[in-house]
Design goal:
single chain; 707 residues; alpha+beta; Neurolysin, domain 3; five-stranded mixed beta sheet
Length: 707
């Protein structure tokens, strides 16, 4: 979800550069691939040539050029115009943007200790550059001059939006502050940049540092064969005996679901949920206080009561009251179902001879057993029908059916890891649309989770269209020596979700990269991703690819019926879990006084009503909540639920007209996927749906409301 260098720097205190000494800089300039033209297919990054030693001098040069570009705009003697000021600012810093995208995407997907140290070194210079742009009085005056004459100049819809966003970015990032306030603003944003970076690095370190090494085969009881095989390979790769389990999702999730050894489940659960709260060098608890307090201070300096007020001003939700209303509305609808879910699982566990109190590390274990017994369906029953290669082909077929996209693998494109697969994407007329990287498996240098990002965004410069370079990164079940990668149903949903983000980038059609693709309001950006998850329970879609990897048998209708029947299993519990994250986020970002209390106490108070199982001491969700403390979801985690309202309502139109209906798909493409943020998302959504979104479709889908 990238923007131009200007808009990225103006929008938030993120990362880049520090100078190295002049001798090193000069010696690296000539042969530095980051500073050269990329003579690769479609000018993709030459990952095979980029080394850590190239980053620092490249960042220096990128920042130098970005500053030079700003000077050229401010020193221009001509009267400020949209072209010589706003467009020039939008297109400034192309080199820095290219360097930043490579480095920080790899920071998430293929990091190492040296890169993490480089990030800590370069952070201050990017924050300084960001502030030097947002607080540049001459630059703001030129932008303001154009903005003040906007009614008298002939601009199209997209140009009007760019002008409005550019002006707002200045005013929302300190341009109107007085001298003393500007100094304070600089200081606060510099601290925030370093703290958010450190938070994410701590979570990655805690995740990578923990392993559970099992040497007694009896302790593997209950675990599926493929999970055991993967654990054996992990142990072998670490020169350890037996079986090794980690906190990465393909290892951690099935262990909690299937391991019969309750003590080991407890150990794994606590290790995962205490990341960042262990009182060691990677502890994030004090960092959380500092981040929350500094964000509040930033908002106060800019004239807002809270950081949430500041953020939500530029969101579909608009204000804290609307977010709170949504969260409470969903809570009231889901709570009865959630209570029923927990009671049902607890009674089931008791019926199986479990005499202890149901604890968090028991939940996945017994709820999975009940699900299997109740619906005769579970991950291991379905895995054989979700061979990764088949899933890829099925999702590509879906994109072709809906949008006419063709995916052609190109092994000549350099990759940053041997696991990465690369595709050229063309439309039905043969026009080149994008490059797509797919990166599926966990490794030490990759953070947990799944995400879509870009190495280049779609834009038009001097009449020439630049098409995007998109990447989807996941942490799926790896193939073993005996079996290919067989995905869980949840992993298929995750792939569809991130692929929806990818389509938002691939199909972008605009002039300005800060307005194209996923560069939209945070509570709108999840619509294109979450709507794709709906296809996962549609027989017509599953029939495209879901065949048994050994027999070739199409997934039986009875299995699909079971998937659909089990779709809302424990939906109440799952909804309250998501709501707890949203409430926790709002609690830290709605403060009006500095936090001095214990983080664990604040967390407990803010999500108490959503907690259905006993809370465990020293298990602090916030301490590893990267979305809000090192990602872009601060005061915005509610957006997943906000977007669920949109995606449920939008998909009801696909269901009504047929899930492969070309007219519906074309409307979604032209009104949503292609438009980015060239218009307000409410306008775009209503143009597609022909009505305001209704929460009823989501409540019906979740089983909280009868049709």
């Amino acid at each position: 979800m990238k923007k131009t260098v200007y808009h990225v720097l103006i929008a938030a205190a993120i990362i880049v550069t520090n100078s190295c000494n002049n001798k090193d800089s000069k010696s690296n300039m000539e042969n530095n691939p980051l500073l050269q033209e990329w003579n690769t297919p479609h000018q993709t990054p030459p990952f095979d040539k980029i080394k850590n030693e190239h980053y620092l001098p490249a960042f220096d040069e990128g920042i130098r050029q970005a500053r030079k570009g700003i000077d050229q705009i401010t020193d221009n003697p001509d009267t400020p115009t949209f072209a010589n000021t706003v467009e020039a600012l939008e297109n400034n810093g192309e080199l820095l943007s290219k360097i930043r995208d490579v480095f920080f995407n790899l920071q998430s997907a293929e990091s190492n200790a040296e890169m993490r140290e480089i990030a800590l070194q370069v952070q201050p210079k990017l924050t300084e550059l960001r502030n030097d742009i947002s607080l540049n009085e001459k630059l703001f005056e030129r932008v303001k001059t154009v903005y003040d004459t906007r009614e008298n100049i002939n601009l199209n819809t997209e140009q009007k939006m760019l002008l409005e966003k550019t002006y707002k970015n200045f005013s929302r990032n300190g341009a109107n502050l007085k001298d003393g306030e500007r100094d304070e603003y600089r200081k606060v944003t510099e601290e925030l940049g370093m703290l958010t970076l450190k938070f994410g690095q701590n979570v990655l370190a805690e995740t990578n540092d923990y392993t559970l090494n099992i040497t007694d085969k009896n302790d593997l009881a209950g675990l599926p064969e493929n999970v055991i095989a993967e654990a054996a390979e992990t142990a072998k790769s670490q020169n350890a005996e037996g079986w090794m389990f980690t906190l990465h999702a393909p290892s951690y999730v099935p262990f909690l679901k299937y391991a019969e050894n309750r003590d080991l489940r407890e150990q794994m659960w606590k290790a995962y949920n205490r990341r960042g709260a262990n009182g060691n060098a990677y502890d994030n608890c004090e960092i959380i206080k500092q981040i929350a307090n500094l964000r509040m201070k930033t908002a106060n300096l800019l004239g807002y009561a809270t950081f949430a007020d500041y953020v939500l001003e530029e969101r579909m939700a608009q204000n804290v009251e609307n977010v709170t209303k949504l969260l409470n509305q969903l809570f009231d609808a889901a709570k009865p179902a959630a209570d029923k879910d927990v009671s049902e699982v607890a009674n089931y566990a008791k019926s199986k001879g479990f005499t202890e109190k149901l604890m968090p590390w028991d939940w996945s274990f017994y709820s999975e057993k009940l699900k299997t017994e109740k619906y005769s369906v579970n991950d291991e029953l379905l895995r054989p029908y979700f061979k990764l290669e088949n899933v890829i082909n099925g999702i590509f077929k879906l994109a072709d059916t809906l949008y006419g996209l063709k995916f052609i693998e190109n092994k000549d494109i350099p990759v940053f890891h041997p696991d990465v697969r690369t595709y050229e994407v063309n439309d039905e007329n043969g026009k080149f649309m994008a490059i797509l990287y797919l990166d599926f498996f966990p490794r030490e240098g990759k953070r947990n989770g799944a995400w879509m990002t870009s190495y280049r965004d779609q834009k038009i410069i001097d009449g020439k269209e630049i098409r995007p370079i998109i990447s989807v990164t996941c942490n799926f079940t790896k193939p073993s020596a005996a079996k290919p990668s067989l995905l869980t149903f949840g992993e298929v949903e995750t792939f569809l979700h991130e692929f929806g983000h990818a389509l938002h980038g691939i199909l972008a059609q605009g002039s300005y990269q800060s307005l194209t693709g996923t560069s939209v309001m945070r509570d709108f950006v999840e619509l294109p991703s979450q709507i794709m998850e709906n296809f996962c329970v549609e027989k017509k879609f599953l029939d495209l690819f879901a065949v048994h990897y050994e027999t070739g048998e199409l997934i039986p209708q009875q299995f699909i019926d079971k998937i659909i029947a089990a779709r809302n299993y424990n939906e109440g519990y799952a909804t309250l879990r998501q709501l707890s994250f949203g409430m926790l986020d709002m609690a830290f970002h709605s403060i009006t006084a500095e936090i001095i209390d214990n983080i664990e106490d604040i967390e407990k108070h803010s999500i108490e009503k959503t907690q259905l199982l006993p809370t465990i001491d020293k298990c602090v969700i916030a301490a590893s909540f990267s979305h809000i403390f090192s990602g872009g979801y601060a005061a915005g985690y509610y957006s997943y639920k906000w977007s669920e309202v949109l995606d449920a309502d939008a998909f009801s139109l696909f269901k009504k007209n047929g899930i492969f209906n070309k007219e519906t798909a074309t409307s979604f493409r032209t009104n949503i996927l292609e438009k980015g943020s060239s218009e307000h998302p409410t306008t775009l959504y209503k143009r597609f749906r022909k009505q305001e979104p209704s929460i009823d479709a989501l409540l019906i889908r979740c089983g909280f409301l009868k049709k």
